[in-house]
Specification:
With about 180 residues, the chain is of the alpha+beta class. It folds into two domains: about 1-35, no CATH class; about 45-180, GTP Cyclohydrolase I, domain 2, CATH 3.30.1130. The protein is built from eight helices and seven strands. Helix 1 (about 1-10) crosses helix 2 and helix 4 (about 95-105) packs antiparallel against helix 5 (about 110-125).
Length: about 180
């Protein structure tokens, strides 16, 4: 990967042997590996058995989870926040595991629409709850730095499963709670 970054820098017309660029291919390769580290993870190892018996059926929400991902079309970042809710049926998940699931899928080449669905499907698979809701709000540098160059645009995507899809009152409660400041 270092050689690829070295070639890329040279293709731009730069001298990879100049002082500021000597170690750039190595640093860029390390950064790219980190930004895509989700490929080396699976749902099972992220969960690490952090599923717990619980007799609650009330909505669990983790909101404002920061996320950073790379757009698969331009390899530019998109940055935002993710809100996740589920309706337990006998099991809950460790709080940090929700954020780790978001991180695992965000640290892959992505489109926001697929990322949203992958997170919802993972929570559904892990817990088999009565419902799952995921909303992501993100700014895409591919739209901000190039193309139409719209600095303040935000993309919002959602995935609603189970009762969140079937019951407008459940969906409305979730959306109201994540929009409270």
């Amino acid at each position: 990967m270092e050689a690829v970054f070295s070639d890329l820098i040279q293709e731009l017309g730069e001298d990879v042997t100049r002082e500021g660029l000597i170690d750039t291919p190595k640093r860029a390769a390390a950064a790219f590996r980190f930004l895509n580290s989700g490929y080396a993870q699976s749902l099972d190892n992220v969960l690490n058995n952090a599923l717990f018996e619980a007799d609650t059926e009330d909505m669990v929400i983790v909101k404002d989870i920061e996320l950073y991902s790379l757009c698969e079309h331009h390899l530019l970042p998109f940055i935002g926040k993710c809100h996740v809710a589920y309706l337990p049926k006998g099991k809950v998940i460790g709080l940090s595991k929700v954020a780790r699931i978001v991180e695992m899928y965000a640290r892959r080449l992505q489109i926001q629409e697929r990322l949203t669905k992958q997170i919802a499907d993972a929570i559904q698979t892990a817990l088999q709850p009565a419902g799952v809701a995921v909303v992501i709000e993100a700014k895409h540098l591919c739209m901000m730095m190039r193309g139409v160059e719209k600095q303040n645009s935000v993309m919002t995507t959602s995935s609603m499963l189970g009762l969140f899809r079937r019951q407008i009152s459940t969906r409305s409660e979730f959306l109201g709670l994540i929009n409270r400041k």
